[in-house]
Amino acid sequence: MNRRDAIGSDDEVVRHALIAVERLHRALWHSVGRELAADDLSVVQWLLVSEVARGEGRTLTHFARATSRDAGSLSRAIHQLTQRGLLENRRSHADRRSSMISLTSAGRAMYRRLAPRIERIAQAMDLGTEAAQLDRIAMALAHAASRIGCGQRGAPATSSRKDIFT
């Protein structure tokens, strides 16, 4: 019996994948949101803060691509986090049309305090003893998205770990 016979038709495979991904999305969004609630931080704001922590001094365009969010929602999140003193938004010396985004000392402290709580969510998924297993699953999902040509806002997605996680 081959894999297709065991699972069913291709449309059933797609249906199962859609349901599984949606359930995981909702569960992760809820779990992360619950961890961030006490700090009055949204999941979108956390995505931005955690991405900035991995590569400070990058542009809004970079962060929009890296987090698969639209520039408008990230612009609002940047403004809110700047108002709270967690982000700094400086004009680029090389290109005055763009801004470079970085964490303030308060933003770095908040990231260091919250990151272990978010990491515990990944551990709670219990996907095996290796943390790399979750990374492989994320890469497989990104690869699948790139294969069907549905990356960020209709653009082809990337399956490069560097583009996804940095």
UniProtKB/TrEMBL annotation:
One Pfam family named in its UniProt record: MarR_2
InterPro entries xref list: HTH_MarR-typ, MarR/SlyA-like, WH-like_DNA-bd_sf, WH_DNA-bd_sf
Signal peptide span: none
Residue intervals of the HTH marR-type domain: 10-146
Top-level taxon of origin: Bacteria
PANTHER family, alphabetized: HTH-TYPE TRANSCRIPTIONAL REPRESSOR YETL, TRANSCRIPTIONAL REGULATOR, MARR FAMILY
Protein name (database record): MarR family winged helix-turn-helix transcriptional regulator
Organism of this sequence: Rhodanobacter ginsengisoli
